[in-house]
Amino acid sequence: xxxAIGADHNGYDLxxxxxxxxxxxGHEVEDFGCHQCAETDYPDVAAEVGKSIQxxxxxxxILICGTGIGVAITANKLTGIRAALAHDYYSAERAQLSxxxxxxxxxxxxxxxxxxxxxxxxxLNVSWKGGxxxxxxxxxxxxxNESN
Length: 148
What we know:
Layout: E1 2-7, H1 12-24, E2 28-31, H2 42-54, E3 60-65, H3 69-75, E4 83-85, H4 89-97, E5 103-107, H5 113-124, H6 133-146
Parallel strand pairs: 1-2, 1-3, 3-5, 4-5
Helix pairs in contact: 1-5, 2-3, 4-5
């Protein structure tokens, strides 16, 4: 699977560790930065990762900032994107199984490398099989109705 990954400067070190882990799991990674530990605005990175998924260039994404909240809020502004914040294995797995979230977000100032790796495994090792289909359709309907 092709995975988009991105982080701001607060998430740079965790992104690098997660990126290496995702590749070790056999996935292809497209890194949207930041590419060094220099101040980077998370909305810019989150928007690029989300757009790559909208355009079908990547199947899923992983975004990291200090808390994971800012990147989730930003990605969720994009039409058709569902980004889920998860700081534990169960939530990361349910992001995909229950909500068909295309993007997993995490906070580098909240969790460590090993927990992040386990979350990524939980998220990438499952596929949405229509669980909560009615609820996901309602999420999409809210978006459509908001634009009218």
